[in-house]
Design a protein that fits this description.
Helix 3 packs antiparallel against helix 4 (275-285). By secondary structure, the chain is of the alpha+beta class. It has five helices and 24 strands. The protein has helices spanning 3-27, 202-207, 257-270, 275-285, 331-341; strands at residues 40-42, 49-53, 64-69, 73-78, 84-88, 94-98, 102-104, 123-125, 133-138, 141-148, 151-159, 164-172, 178-180, 186-189, 196-197, 199-200, 218-219, 221-222, 224-225, 240-241, 290-292, 297-304, 312-319, 322-329. The chain starts with a helix and ends with a helix.
Amino acid sequence: MGTSTISKAAFSVIISLLLIATLRAQAAPQSSASAGGPLWKITCPGVANVPMTADPEQSIPLQVVATLKCGEEVTVLDNSEGYTVRIQNANAQTGYVAAMYLKKIPASNRPRRAKTAPLANGVSRWEEGGLGCDQFMNDGRLVESLTVNGLTVQVSLHDTGWKLRANIAIVNEGSSSISIDPSHFILDEIGAHGRPLFYQDPEQLAKNVTHQVLWTESTAGPANIHSQSSSASVVTATNVDYKSSFSPTVSAPNYLVQHQSAEDDAVRRQGKQTLVNTAQQIRALALKPATVEPSGKISGAVWFERSKNPEQLMLRIPIDNQMLEFPLSFKQLRHNRDLLDAGLM
């Protein structure tokens, strides 16, 4: 074979390699670090979840940085490795995943919602002004909203004078179903003499019903609780700081409005009904154990034991392997009411 023939063959190989590289570059994820938000999501063809590793080769044994859920949104940082792509997840962790597990989210399909809140050791806590954290008024009642990895939970806490009642909405915008069980929700009174306030079975409440179970005396406001880590440990009074101002910062929809409307209707009709009808309303309004499918939502009321003078509280809602925490306070509202009664406001 002549030199000319070899040169032509080599040239053809080079052209073919360049063409393959160009096609791969067009099909593979590009860097979106400058896009200001996640443009890609994790897909799980035939697997339950996807490992994110510290090394681009993903050598065995895997150096796993995080385990990513199906549908989780991520930001692509670099795509120069070929087989793997360097990404950042919602918890600001960086690592590598195989390119086959990434799918671009078209701009027209990306939902408008709050940025996800950080998740540390499986725990995410609502914080005023924090990422994924909203607060807004719903018919005169303060609602705290927390969004974590496609899961949004909104709560408002009410003191009926007999029991504490939490109105809760849960929205699943992820790609996997989630399970909830209100009997596992935790409400802790915080402070030197704090104690757990136990979940109240709505069936038992219905059997021992009074009108007061629906009537609201006051609504809890935000409590800004600072701690060294977002753990599920008991928070003491020394790291509780209350804010007297309220400035709504809303990017999440109001998912509680439908439940609140049904509850308000029940309260309006309460004086004209018997206790039997009120018991039926409790059963109808109560949040029940359920599986929430992707794009599904559920809302309802959850009752807890009431302490003598509840002020500083932490509502903890476990959903699958995550714990969402909501610090709430009646203290500032009672203080303002005392000032009003004294003519100082």
